[in-house]
Structure to design on (555 residues):
């Protein structure tokens, strides 16, 4: 019983392997895919995996037409949180009636099933036409009318507005799938605004309750590590260093919470290791009385070099339009979006348009109601030798990077004002925090006012906005995200705040997967937490509850 006999001629074939064998079946599938002249254009393999930390893990392959998803969660949770259309499922030795119904929910028309004989009854009840075969059985999903394999969107042309980390990642992820993309940037070159700092740090977030933000941060961090390796690697194709990050606790109470997280034992040491005060002090070379986290795989990177690597990977599928100034958008009668220059000249037109222009997005009529706030961040540039040299990134209330090209980056301020100029008060704040971290009252003493100011794009919940933009003008009953009316073909990659380096790859992958109708790289609950319509949904729910004199939530 071989599901590979059924993939011939498909544009895409999605396999779900419920055997928790760490994706061992993937190697055989990949070998068969390469050897078969009738192979599908794209192979997507989803497998349960034993591992920690928990969550969905997408692993990009050398061939962009092959994707591996490892679901490091129990089967019931994996099926409940997976958004995919499955063409074949292998469930030998596992599953029950609830799992059978969940697999049927995910099954594409005519999907093939391979399972143990003991499961034949529950899968028959779930809509599969089954026949035994010596201790095992195979089935065909008959719950929906069989049809040809899913067709990819056509035409696959898009405009990406903004050439920072968000926009460059969007270009690369779409071009890797065969899209033709036009990148439109108001400035003369990429990484000019929020992505223009000399160094950005990358590390995950932790929390005692492993909340949504923590889980998203973890998924983004782990995906980014593999993604950057595929582009050539930090410290090679990308300027930076995977030198590790030491994050010091902010005081005894904060340290107590961090020790409790470490005591849960769910994080491998190469991901996050708690260092008590003696160990943290020894690493720092000065007193660290409350200990800290060591993120061995964290580090820093030059955002502009990350953007350059992503855009270079796009090849001939990318057209770049730089220096166009401010633009407006127009929806054409044929459904295409056109980006217009200030004089009304059409810059580019496509059925799909992605806003990845940070705080500039709210100046566009279609995105004006998004609750995005510009937050000023001033980074201080310190000459090498003006502070103690450390071979890793140090952070806490501020951060300090190792010197590159003779400069340490320290910062950053978090100010609710639009002032673009360097100011002494922000520098003094940065230096005071760095001195506290280093335990050195003279660090950076007498440093000239040098650095950079950027405007972060921040949402109220500090999470990105990824997906189709809501259209507030279109009314109707709204109870869930899927009920919210959207602008057809208009999407967002916004709100990365101060973590654009980490957010950009996974958010772009999530959006590209949605646009191509692929399995999502995240649990559905996490993908929903990033939906740009979440704020409008909350507003409509509050309005509904108010209309009932506060007697209900409107859910």
């Amino acid at each position: 019983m071989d599901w590979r006999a059924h993939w011939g001629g498909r544009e895409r074939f999605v396999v779900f392997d419920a055997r928790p064998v760490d994706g061992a079946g993937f190697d055989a599938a990949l070998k068969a895919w390469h050897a078969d002249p009738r192979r599908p254009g794209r192979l997507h393999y989803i497998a349960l995996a034993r591992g920690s930390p928990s969550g969905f893990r997408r692993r990009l392959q050398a061939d962009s037409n092959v994707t591996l998803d490892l679901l490091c969660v129990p089967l019931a949770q994996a099926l409940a949180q997976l958004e995919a259309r499955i063409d074949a499922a292998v469930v030998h030795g596992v599953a029950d009636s609830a799992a059978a119904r969940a697999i049927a929910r995910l099954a594409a028309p005519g999907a093939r099933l391979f399972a143990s004989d003991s499961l034949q009854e529950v899968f028959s009840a779930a809509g599969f036409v089954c026949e035994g075969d010596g201790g095992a059985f195979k089935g065909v999903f008959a719950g929906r009318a069989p049809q040809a394999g899913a067709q990819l969107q056509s035409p696959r042309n898009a405009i990406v507005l903004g050439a920072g980390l968000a926009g460059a990642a969007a270009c690369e992820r779409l071009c890797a799938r065969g899209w033709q993309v036009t990148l439109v940037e108001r400035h003369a070159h990429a990484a000019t605004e929020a992505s223009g700092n000399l160094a950005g740090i990358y590390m995950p977030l932790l929390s005692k309750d492993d909340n949504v933000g923590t889980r998203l941060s973890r998924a983004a961090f782990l995906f980014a590590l593999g993604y950057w390796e595929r582009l050539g690697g930090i410290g090679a194709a990308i300027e930076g260093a995977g030198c590790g990050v030491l994050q010091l606790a902010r005081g005894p109470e904060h340290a107590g919470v961090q020790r409790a997280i470490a005591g849960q034992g769910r994080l491998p040491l190469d991901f996050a290791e708690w260092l008590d005060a003696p160990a943290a002090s020894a690493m720092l070379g000065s007193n660290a009385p409350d200990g800290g986290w060591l993120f061995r795989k964290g580090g820093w990177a030059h955002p502009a070099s990350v953007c350059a690597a992503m855009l270079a990977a796009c090849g001939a599928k990318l057209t770049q339009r730089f220096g166009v100034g401010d633009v407006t958008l127009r929806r054409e009668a044929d459904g295409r979006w056109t980006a217009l220059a200030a004089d009304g000249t059409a810059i580019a037109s496509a059925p799909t348009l992605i806003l990845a222009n940070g705080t500039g997005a709210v100046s566009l009529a279609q995105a004006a109601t998004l609750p995005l706030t510009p937050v000023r961040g001033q980074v201080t540039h310190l000459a090498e030798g003006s502070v103690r040299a450390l071979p890793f990134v140090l952070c806490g209330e501020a951060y300090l990077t190792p010197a590159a090209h003779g400069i340490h980056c320290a910062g950053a301020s978090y100010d609710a004002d639009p002032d673009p100029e360097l100011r002494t008060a922000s520098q003094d704040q940065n230096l005071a925090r760095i001195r506290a971290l280093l335990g050195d009252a003279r660090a950076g003493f007498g440093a000239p006012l040098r650095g950079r100011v950027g405007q972060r794009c921040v949402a109220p919940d500090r999470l990105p906005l990824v997906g189709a933009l809501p259209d507030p003008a279109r009314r109707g009953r709204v109870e869930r995200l899927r009920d919210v009316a959207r602008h057809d073909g208009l999407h967002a990659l916004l709100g990365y705040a101060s973590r654009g380096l980490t957010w950009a790859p996974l958010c772009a992958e999530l959006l590209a997967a949605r646009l191509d109708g692929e399995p999502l790289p995240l649990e559905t609950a996490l993908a929903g937490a990033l939906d740009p319509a979440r704020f409008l949904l909350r507003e409509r729910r509050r309005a509904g509850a108010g209309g009932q004199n506060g007697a209900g939530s409107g859910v």
Remarks:
- The longest strand covers residues 373-383.
